Amino acid sequence: MSDTDRRIEQLLAALRDDNEALRDHAVASLGQIGPAAIDRLINLFADEDRVIREAARQALIQVGADAVPPLLEALRDDEWAVREQAAAALGRLKDERALAPLIAALKDRDGAVRLAAVEALEKIQDPRAVEGLMEALQDQTVREEAARALKKIPDPRAVDGLLRGLAGDNWVVKRHAAEALGLIGDPRAVEGLREALRDEDWLVRRNAAESLARLRDQGAVDALLPLLEDENDMVRETAEGALSSLGWTPPNA
Question: Could you tell me which residues come within 8 angstroms of residue 25 by beta carbon, excluding any fewer than 6 positions away?
């Protein structure tokens, strides 16, 4: 066994130590060793201890671009935990080579892997992921995260899917969709956003009001006026700001 291999084994053992500072040092040192440690770190993705799996992932992120090809291979592993950690690491590395494989991973048979793929694509923020993320809006396991990711990648192609989410029954999706539609700035969203001003969830109402202001929707004034009496302070304040931005002034002003 070479000195490097012996050092790697020592550091891998240190990942299981109860001392957090020692574990952090081991992660940093394994990352500095680089390519020689990659395969053994990926092997830890299948460890039964999630702390070990995540420590191995952090070390591989520190290795950098050299870790991408082995991580792409790991993304096709039979073990779900290996695929999950590979997707998460690739998202942090933001390497273009990972884009298509991560989009494909949105259809993985395991929900944890699909979730890791959505979160990775959210970090990468490449418009080529939009269509895959729109399909993920229909996935009960990851739809909330997919809506959040689409908020980070404002793209007109997402409007129809986000409008369906805004009209749906998941309040987290609706919150993200109401905000994302304003960021995209497509006038097709106006009618759905006006309707969302009457939503039961206060943050959906607040985000819809802000988005209508972003869209400069003069026709939204009448729909916004009732929010001046909303039970929620933030909704009232946002409605007031939105109305002001649209040129409305109180009758007695």
Answer: 14
Nearest to 68 by CA among 47, 99, 27: 99
Range of the domain at 201: 157-253
Is the residue at 222 inside a domain?
Answer: yes
- In the chain, the number of structural domains is 1
> Which residue reads 């394994």 in tokens?
30
The span from the CA of 214 to the CA of 192, in Å, is 14
| In a domain? residue 38 | no
Q: Is residue 170 part of a domain?
A: yes
Which residue type sits at 83? Answer: R
Angle between the 80-93 and 111-124 helix axes, to the nearest 10 degrees? 10
Q: CATH number, domain at 216?
A: 1.25.10.10
- pLDDT, tens digit (0-9, with 9 covering 90-100), for 108-164: 999 999 999 999 999 999 999 999 999 999 999 999 999 999 999 999 999 999 999
Task: Give the C-alpha distances (Å, rounded to integers) separating 105 from 14, 94, 100, 102.
Answer: 32, 15, 9, 5
Q: What is the pTM of this model?
A: 0.91
Flag whether 93 is in a domain: no
Q: In 10 A of CB 100, how many CB atoms?
A: 13
Count of C-beta atoms within a 10 Å radius of residue 154 = 18
Long-range contacts of 221-229 (CB under 8 A, 24+ apart): 221/246, 221/248, 223/194, 223/197, 224/197, 224/248, 226/197, 227/197
DSSP 103-144: HHHTT-SSHHHHHHHHHHHHHH--GGGHHHHHHHTT-TTTHH
